[in-house]
Amino acid sequence: MTDDGVELRVHVRARAARDSVGGTHDGALQVSVRAAPSEGAANAALCRALAQALEVRPRAVALLAGGKSRRKRVGVKGDPEALRGALDLLASSPAKV
User: Which parts of the chain have pLDDT scores under 70?
Assistant: First the structure.
């Protein structure tokens, strides 16, 4: 957690059948996106999917590290306690759109 949000590790599965967020993979939040991993399309889709799942504005989600990897570090700005609660719920549940 940071003063103005949270940082989290995610595992991204590109070219999925649908965009979804939920569950974990090796201790990281699992995010599936339909976009292909080329020219940043999957990274942009990751940020949009997380923003929708966490009910924050898309610009509140930023890729911090791992731009060319399936394992990424993402920052989300907002109320840290509310975000942590939402992330815990997402990690413990099956994927949701």
Answer: 1-2, 95-97
Strands 71-77, 5-13: pairing kind: antiparallel
Number of domains the chain is built from: 1
Q: Is residue 52 part of a domain?
A: yes
H or E stretch at 16: none
Tokens of 19: 């965009």
Nearest to 90 by CA among 60, 51, 53, 58: 53
- Indicate which CATH number applies to the domain containing 26: 3.30.1200.10
- Apex CA 24: angle with CA 21 and CA 25, to 5°? 115
Alpha carbon distance 5, 13 (integer Å): 24
- Residue 88: predicted pLDDT: 87
Is residue 97 in some structural domain?
no
